[in-house]
Task: inverse folding
C-alpha cells in the first residue's frame, strides 16, 4: 500500500482453518500490536497462543528480500524472464506433462486462482497440486462421493448448539483452539457431551466425557459398527433416507459385514466393549450431534472411506445441515478451503468443477483459454515421484517446503536436484526446499504485507489485509504469476492490477453458467468495486446473485449435487491390514503441537511460542519404552524404511501400545536430526491421493 493505516487493520490469522479475525496496529518500527477482532464471526475477539503472538513474528530476519538466480541477487525482470523462458522451452520440448506447480494452503485465494488459470488454461497442464493434499484431500474426496460436490454442510454455530460433539482424529484443543474454546463455553452452558476418538490421550481427550483410544486406522470399522447399531436400534430416519439418499441397503449390508455388532467392533478397534456401547448409545439417542474430524481421519490409507463411514451415520439419521447436526471437516490450513474453491488440486478444474467435458468447455470459454488441460494432473506424491523419474522437468514451488513436509522427504529432496528448471517463491531465505537446488528464488510478500482473501472451515471468506509495507523487493504471488503469463504471451488474460480484480474474476467464474447444479457460487461478489472489496466483511458462501444470506447450511432438505440430487451412501471397503514388518514393529504417527505451525518459519521467531516445547520429541507408551530400552528424557533413534531421526523420548501413558508420536515442525534448518518427514512412508489413499502420515512402520532404539 502507498500509505500504511494508522488505525488497526482488520485482517485474518494466517495459521489454522478456524480463520480468526485479527486487528493489527502497526507500530511504525516494522512490528504491530495484535488483538482479536471482536466483530469477526469466527472468533468474536478471541485468539489462541499462536494468533496472539503474531506481532512477535514480523521481523525481517531470515526473509528473502530480493530475487536471486543461482545464488546471486538479480532483478525481478531478469528472474521472471528466466522463469517464462524455462517453462516455454520445457513445454516446447517435452509437452505439458513435464511442467508443474506446487502450491500451499498458506496462499491467498487470488494467488491460487492465478496459478490455476495459467497452468490449467494457458499452459495445458493440470499438474497443479498443493500441500493441502497432505491436509484435507480425503475430506474433499469424501464430500464429493457422498454429496456430489466438496461441500461442508454446516456452520460453526452448530458446534455450539450440538448436544453431542464427537471428535475423530482431531486434537482441536491444540490445533483449532479458538473454535474449541467456543465449543467448551457452549458446553458449559448447555451440558453438551464430548466424545473423543483418538489413539492418543491428547489435550482434547483429557476434557472428554468419553475417550475411545482407538487402534490407529480402524475408524471406518467403528463407524460401520455405529451404522449397523443405529439401524438395529431404530435410529434410522427412514423418511430422510427414502427421500434424499441412495445406496443405503448396500452400505448397511457392508457395515454389518465389517462390524456386525458392538463386541466385534470393539475387538477390531482395540476398545472396551462398554466404551463402544456407551458411544453408540449416546449417538443413537442424541439428536443434535456434530462429528468433527481432522488429520487423524484424512491422513490415512483409507481416509476417504473413514470420511464416508462418518457421513453415512449422519445421512442415515437425517442429522445433516440442521442446527446442531452434521459431519464437520476441520481444515488444517488458513486457506485450504479457498484453494479448493479455485480448483487448486490436480484433480479439480476450477470453482468446484471437475474434468468432465462440459466443465472443461465451460471454463475454456470463460477464460478464453488457448490450451486447456483436458485430464486431471498428478497429485502431490505422484508429482514428486514423477520429478524423481525425470518426467517432470520444470517446477514452481510456492509458499511451501515439500523437501521437509512430503513423505519420504529425503527422496523428495534428492529428486528436486535433478530438475531443469526449479523456481521457488518464498518468504524465507533458506529452507530444505531452497537448499535442494532452487535456481530461481522469488521473494514473496508475507502475512501483514499481502492483500487478498482466505476461506475458513465453515465456508467463510475473509479478507487478509496489509498493514506493513512489503519489504525489499517482495511482491504478491498472484502478481509474479501474472508477470510470467504476460511474458508467455497471455497478457490480456492476466492483466489484473489489484487482487480485487482477480477476486472478481474468480467470483464471476463461480457463477458462470451455474444454474444451481454447483454448490460453489459467489456471483454476488463479482461486482464488488475496489472500495467494496477493501471493505468486504467476512461472508459465507454460497453468495449467489440476488440471494445472500447471513448463515448458510446445506442439505437439511436434500438438494445434493449428484445427478439425481440424492446423497450417496458409501459401502466402505473392509479394513486393509498392513503387512507386519519385523524390523519396524511400531507405528509412527506424526502431527502438530500447540504452539508451532508447519515448519516454524513464523512461530519459530517467537520465544514465547518456542518455549512451550523447545525441541523435537517422540512419545512412546511405558511398556514399549521398557521393551526398547529407551528412557524418558534421553535421546532415541527412530527409524523407518525411508529415514531416521534422533528425538527426545517422552514416555507417555496416554500413548497407545505399539504406536509412536512425533511432531512435524522441525526441519534440516532447525534440527539436523529431527526431520520426521524423512521417515514417513508414501502410502496414499486410493481416492484422494492423501498420504498416510499416521501409520509408518517404524522402530526405536537408544542412541
Ligand atoms: Fe489463528 Fe487458528 Fe489460533 Fe484462530 S485458532 S488465532 S485462526 S491459529
Result:
Amino acid at each position: 500500500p502507498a500509505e500504511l493505516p494508522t488505525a488497526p487493520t482488520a485482517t485474518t490469522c494466517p495459521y489454522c482453518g478456524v480463520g480468526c479475525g485479527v486487528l493489527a496496529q502497526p507500530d511504525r518500527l516494522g512490528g504491530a500490536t495484535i488483538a482479536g477482532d471482536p466483530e469477526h464471526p469466527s472468533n468474536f475477539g478471541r485468539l489462541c497462543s499462536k494468533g496472539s503472538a503474531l506481532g512477535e513474528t514480523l521481523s525481517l530476519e531470515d526473509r528473502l528480500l530480493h530475487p536471486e538466480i543461482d545464488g546471486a541477487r538479480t532483478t525481478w525482470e531478469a528472474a521472471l524472464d528466466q522463469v517464462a523462458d524455462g517453462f516455454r522451452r520445457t513445454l516446447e520440448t517435452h509437452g505439458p506433462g513435464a511442467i508443474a506447480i506446487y502450491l500451499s494452503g498458506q496462499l491467498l485465494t487470488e494467488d491460487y486462482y492465478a496459478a490455476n488459470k495459467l497452468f490449467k488454461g494457458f499452459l495445458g497442464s493440470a499438474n497443479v497440486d498443493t500441500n493441502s493434499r497432505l491436509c484435507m484431500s480425503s475430506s474433499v474426496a469424501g464430500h464429493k462421493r457422498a454429496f456430489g460436490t466438496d461441500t461442508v454442510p454446516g456452520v460453526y454455530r452448530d458446534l455450539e448448539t450440538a448436544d453431542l460433539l464427537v471428535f475423530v482424529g482431531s486434537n482441536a484443543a491444540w490445533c483449532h483452539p479458538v473454535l474449541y474454546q467456543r465449543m467448551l463455553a457452549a458446553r458449559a452452558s448447555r451440558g453438551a457431551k464430548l466424545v473423543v476418538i483418538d489413539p492418543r490421550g491428547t489435550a482434547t481427550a483429557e476434557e472428554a466425557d468419553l475417550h475411545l483410544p482407538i487402534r490407529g486406522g480402524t475408524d471406518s470399522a467403528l463407524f460401520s459398527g455405529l451404522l449397523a447399531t443405529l439401524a438395529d436400534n431404530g435410529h434410522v430416519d427412514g423418511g430422510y433416507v427414502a427421500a434424499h439418499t441412495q445406496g443405503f441397503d448396500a452400505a448397511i449390508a457392508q457395515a454389518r459385514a465389517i462390524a456386525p455388532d458392538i463386541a466385534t467392533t470393539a475387538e477390531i478397534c482395540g476398545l472396551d466393549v462398554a466404551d463402544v456401547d456407551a458411544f453408540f448409545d449416546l449417538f443413537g439417542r442424541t439428536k443434535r450431534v456434530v462429528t468433527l474430524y481432522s488429520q487423524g481421519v484424512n491422513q490415512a490409507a483409507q481416509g476417504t472411506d473413514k470420511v464416508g463411514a462418518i457421513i453415512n451415520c449422519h445421512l442415515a439419521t437425517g442429522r445433516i445441515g440442521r442446527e446442531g447436526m452434521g459431519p464437520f471437516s476441520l481444515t488444517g490450513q488458513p486457506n485450504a478451503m479457498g484453494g479448493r474453491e479455485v480448483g487448486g488440486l490436480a484433480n479439480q478444474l476450477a470453482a468446484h468443477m471437475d474434468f468432465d467435458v462440459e466443465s472443461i468447455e465451460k471454463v475454456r470459454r470463460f477464460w478464453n483459454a488457448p490450451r486447456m488441460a483436458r485430464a486431471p494432473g498428478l497429485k502431490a506424491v505422484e508429482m514428486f515421484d514423477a520429478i524423481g523419474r525425470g518426467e517432470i522437468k520444470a517446477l514452481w514451488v510456492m509458499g511451501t517446503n515439500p523437501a521437509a513436509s512430503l513423505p519420504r522427504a529425503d527422496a523428495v529432496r534428492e529428486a528436486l536436484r535433478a530438475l531443469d528448471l526449479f523456481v521457488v517463491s518464498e518468504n524465507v531465505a533458506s529452507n530444505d526446499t531452497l537448499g535442494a537446488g532452487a535456481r530461481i528464488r522469488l521473494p514473496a510478500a508475507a502475512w501483514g504485507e499481502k492483500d487478498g482473501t482466505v476461506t475458513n472451515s465453515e465456508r467463510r471468506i475473509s479478507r487478509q489485509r496489509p498493514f506493513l509495507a512489503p519489504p525489499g523487493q517482495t511482491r504478491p504471488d498472484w502478481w509474479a504469476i501474472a508477470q510470467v503469463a504476460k511474458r508467455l504471451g497471455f497478457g490480456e488474460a492476466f492483466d489484473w492490477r489489484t487482487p480485487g480484480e482477480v477476486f472478481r474474476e474468480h467470483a464471476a467464474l463461480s457463477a458462470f453458467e451455474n444454474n444451481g447444479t454447483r454448490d460453489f457460487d459467489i456471483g454476488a461478489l463479482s461486482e464488488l468495486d475496489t472500495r467494496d472489496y477493501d471493505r468486504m466483511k467476512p461472508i459465507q458462501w454460497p453468495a449467489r446473485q440476488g440471494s445472500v444470506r447471513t448463515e448458510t447450511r446445506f442439505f437439511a432438505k436434500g438438494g445434493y449435487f449428484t445427478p439425481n440430487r440424492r446423497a450417496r451412501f458409501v459401502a466402505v471397503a473392509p479394513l486393509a491390514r498392513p503387512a507386519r514388518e519385523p524390523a519396524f514393529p511400531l507405528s509412527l504417527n506424526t502431527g502438530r503441537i500447540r504452539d508451532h505451525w508447519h515448519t516454524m518459519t513464523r512461530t519459530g521467531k517467537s520465544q514465547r511460542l518456542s518455549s512451550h516445547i523447545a525441541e523435537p520429541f517422540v512419545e512412546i507408551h511405558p511398556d514399549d519404552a521398557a521393551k526398547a530400552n529407551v528412557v524418558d528424557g534421553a535421546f532415541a533413534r527412530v527409524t523407518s524404511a525411508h529415514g531416521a531421526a534422533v528425538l527426545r523420548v517422552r514416555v507417555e501413558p496416554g500413548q497407545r501400545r505399539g504406536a509412536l508420536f512425533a511432531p512435524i515442525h522441525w526441519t534440516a534448518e532447525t534440527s539436523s536430526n529431527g526431520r520426521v518427514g524423512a521417515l514417513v512412508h508414501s502410502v496414499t489413499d486410493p481416492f484422494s491421493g492423501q498420504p498416510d502420515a499416521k501409520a509408518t512402520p517404524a522402530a526405536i532404539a537408544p542412541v
